[in-house]
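Question thread 4412

I'm putting together a teaching handout and wanted feedback from people who do this every day. The idea is simple: show students a protein as raw sequence, then show them the structure tokens that encode its fold, then repeat with a second protein so they can compare. Below is the first pair exactly as I plan to print it.
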Amino acid sequence: MARKNLQVVKSGERTNPAGKSVSNKILLSISDSEYSSIRPHLEYVRLPNHLVLHETGERLQFAYFPNRSLISLVVVMKDGRTVEAGVVGNEGFTGTSAAVGLSRGPLRAVVQVTGDGFRIKVGALQNTLQSTPNLQMLLNRYAAIRSMQVAQTAACNRLHDIKQRLARWLLMTQDRVDSEALPITHDFLATMLGTDRPSVSLAAGALQKKGFIAYTRGAVKIVNRRKLEDSACECYGVIRQYDGELGLK
């Protein structure tokens, strides 16, 4: 059976109880009746850069639905080294473990690009899902697709060179924040890509020399997206295809 595209309410047509506008695509995709069930529990929050929303292995307190922010899902090793396993923008939510009945999450969730969104207590979300089957389906689908993204990212980090990975990462980030300029430092890129700062600087310098990006202190601007896509590895296209399976417009 062909899967129907979900109907998405326009951004700004839904608000939380405090009157804050909703831009998260999942919250805009569910029916009015199901949104009415979750709306009382949505708390508007600012999401400043580098804020840790959840630590590895800790009990989940909240699930977050970003509006205009980017959140990294990060694997943390015992020696403190980290590598990004996935990203979440306004197409998704953090706390996928809670949506399938688990109490803990395996990844650190950290805000990568400043923005805002909504959070909901895990208990309230799980109670709401008992009477909102379409929301439950959508969150389960998102959890499955995010696990595919994590697997693809793991393969990318192991098999592809830093320039390809950087191009893939910049494209994925722009897809989720809808901006040419990305407020990201080389130090933070190195942390997310699981490498060192000099390697990131060399890769960024090569992309800038070709005219694909422009780097200023603390920000990267994508100048030629088509050429940047050509420089990325196959993983960008695969992950983008996974995101398309969500059925969100």
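The second pair follows. I'd like the answer to focus on this one:
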Amino acid sequence: MQEEKRDIAAEITSRIVRKFRKPIWGKFLEGIKNYELIQEGDRIAVCISGGKDSMLMAMCMKQLQKYSKVPFEAEYLVMDPGYAPENRQRIIDNAALLDIPIKIFEARIFDAVEVIGKNPCYMCARMRRGYLYKNAQKLGCNKIALGHHFDDVIETILMGMLCGSQIQTMMPKLHSEHFPGMQLIRPMYMVREEDIIRWRDLNGLVFLNCACSVTQSISVNGDGGSKRQEVKMLMKQLKVIDPAVEMHIFRSVENVNLQTLISYHLGDEYHHFLDNYDEGRNIRGTIT
């Protein structure tokens, strides 16, 4: 039975490298290389929520660990924030099927966010990250890897502009503010969600969606979905008009011209275009 499961896992992994070489495996490697996400000697906590994105990330990291010229270690970490027993068991079963050696710890986050009236998803995400950093440190890790993909990046940019009155990007890696020496990396940064879905469906896999009772309650009570879901629907409409709109948005935050912004801040430093306007420079930076 165990040997049969290993064969299934090996076949599913081989499909990532062969059938999805360009859209998944290639993009996975591209993100790691371009943003220097992994260095020699890293010990990375690969954080698995039970969804399709983090499960695929775990399989890619496991495969990379075997053949990478940059040696690193990995722990496959699952946090149970208060899942229903059947959801927790699904994660365990999928990990066994895909031959991912998970370690589970408990954190009763769902109980805490149920009493939060505003922005429960935001608070849940912050609490999750803190618990992940803390438990990754206990395992001797210096990095945590999260399964955010390219669509998450685009949606975050739009959410910041449309809902938060700011231009910001979901970064491919970050230093932790509260856990010195720890970093967060996003190995799936360049992988598109539609390709993850194709991989999942081709292999007949069933993963968790959001298993949070708070979100389910919002949906049932007719109060609407999250802002991210609204932006996701908007992106679908925009892609009908221009299939390349996601890449245009992504490139826009790679090509920011500070001289054409009304104001911006760098850390605690605030800059306004009027600060240097009377020096005789127009917005293109040339003397008029």
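Top answer:
Good format. For the second protein you could add a caption like this: The CA atoms of residues 23 and 195 lie 7 Å apart. The radius of gyration is 21 Å.
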